[in-house]
Specification:
By secondary structure, this protein is α+β, with helices and mostly antiparallel strands. The chain is built from eight helices and 19 strands. The chain folds into two domains: 224 residues, 2-Layer Sandwich (Antithrombin, Chain I, domain 2), CATH 3.30.497; 158 residues, Alpha-1-antitrypsin, domain 1. Strand 11 and strand 12 form a beta hairpin. Helix 1 runs antiparallel to helix 7, helix 2 runs antiparallel to helix 3 and helix 2 runs antiparallel to helix 4.
Length: 436
């Protein structure tokens, strides 16, 4: 199933708003594609101001939200390397509207016992299973007793992709910025496709984007802004550029010199007539916990968090309000590939080479991510942003521990045994000497 363009635009709009709201220089990772399918059924069951606010955050009318979320989740299931799941858990004494349940995307429906410890164990097991262990705990606050948590609605996304061409990894240091002098796991790559790099102009200045192609139809874009540019502005510009809302000038059309952050283009002598792109970036792992109610207006939850009255008559005849809304996310960028996962949960409480013969003059493009930068995981055909984040603390390089004498002796014995086996195999394959 293909993704509806209007839904993709709505999810990416939420992602750009979330990115633009990021403050400070701390690393983060988030996925609007994990939040949007939860806000949609809430809007479908909401009434009054809460319904209008949720529809505004979603970017589509509330009456279309449930169907759009169901279509989106079905399409995500068809993306290679991506797992998407939703789950619903309710207290046995909570009446649910049958029409709302019918419009809900397919997923498990469990029962909350009312005991926070037992319920957490069940919810954590679901999160761990759906993300292949990347996110081990459900990010939800449960309350006990008659007025405790009545309903939990959750989504999980887990993405794994390998690069079409892996990077080469060796220890290195950043040339500038806050990472200068620190030993890092630097990833290097050279290609004849310079237009994998481009520059976009945004409100906070120029932004350089490097596209790294994955083998599952999902690509990762590294995003570098001007020194001192706010991370939120850099990320939101990157999202607009990667999703083709904002124009990008490819490297082949950029002037020589330094036409973008971290970018150098020059004509050089080379043994191959093709242009070259040389890219360098550090490996990274980023984890983040988000309390969505800290930015309730961004997600359309300001009205719905008011527990003095109910807001969701389309979900239940019992008065319900939002008690908690959180997301746990992780992303890893390494020499072989990229992986990311997020679990989002909303809980409701009661209201209440050789020497060359010829040398060529070619354009050489170099891009280096030597200081904090952003990243985006984007589905190639739909341009849906699956994950986004900011890297402030890349993976340091650590010297491998020195082998013990016992380990060295064992390696020597294994090498000798392998050599003897190869010699026996070679001897067996040689033709017998001719008879005298």
């Amino acid at each position: 199933m293909s993704m509806r363009n209007s839904t993709v635009r709505a999810v990416n709009r939420l992602a750009a708003h979330w990115a633009g709201a990021h403050r400070g220089d701390a690393g983060t990772v988030f996925t609007a594609a994990g939040v949007w399918p939860l806000l949609a059924p809430l809007a479908d069951g909401a009434a009054g101001p809460a319904r209008a606010e949720l529809a505004e955050a979603l970017g589509i009318p509330a009456e279309r939200a449930a169907g759009a979320a169901r279509e989106l989740l079905a399409a995500l299931e068809g993306v290679r390397g991506l797992r998407a799941a939703t789950g619903l858990w309710t207290r046995a004494d909570l009446p649910l509207e049958a029409a709302w349940l019918e419009r809900l995307a397919p997923g498990g429906h469990g029962t909350l016992s009312g005991g926070a410890e037992a319920d957490h164990q069940a919810l954590d097991a679901w999160a761990d299973r759906q993300t292949d262990g990347l996110v081990k705990r459900m990010p939800v606050t449960l309350t006990e007793g008659p007025d405790g948590t009545k309903l939990v609605l959750a989504s999980a996304l887990a993405l794994k992709t390998k690069w079409i061409r892996p990077f080469t990894e060796w220890p290195g240091e950043a040339a500038e910025g806050p990472w200068a002098g620190r030993p890092l796991r630097m990833l290097h790559r050279s290609t004849a496709l310079p237009d994998r790099v481009g520059v976009a102009e945004g409100p906070a200045g120029a932004v350089t984007l490097l596209e790294v192609v994955g083998d599952t139809g999902v690509d990762v874009h590294l995003v570098l802004g001007e020194p001192g540019a706010p991370p939120g502005a850099v990320l939101s510009t990157g999202i607009e550029a990667a999703t083709r809302v904002r124009p990008v000038v490819p490297a082949s059309r950029l002037p020589e010199g330094r036409p973008g952050p971290g970018l150098t283009i020059a004509t050089v002598l080379a043994v191959n007539p093709e242009p070259r792109l040389v890219a360098k970036a550090p490996a990274f792992e980023v984890r983040a916990e988000h309390d969505l109610l800290e930015q309730a207006g961004l997600f359309g939850l300001e009205e719905a968090r008011d527990n003095t009255r109910g807001h969701f008559p389309g979900i239940s005849s019992a008065p319900l309000a939002i008690g908690s809304a959180r997301q746990s996310a992780v992303a890893r960028f390494q020499a072989e590939g990229f992986e990311a996962a997020a679990v989002t949960a909303v809980a409701m409480a009661p209201g209440s080479a050789l020497p060359p013969r010829t040398r060529y003059r070619v354009r050489r493009t170099e891009v280096s991510f030597d200081r904090p930068f952003g990243f985006l995981a984007v589905h190639r055909t739909s341009r849906l942003v699956l994950a986004a984040g900011w890297v402030s603390d890349p993976v340091p390089y650590a010297e491998p521990p020195e082998k013990t004498e016992e380990e060295k002796r064992r390696e020597e014995e294994e090498a000798d045994a392998q050599w003897e086996e190869e010699e026996r195999a070679a001897a067996a394959s040689r033709p017998a000497p001719p008879s005298p």
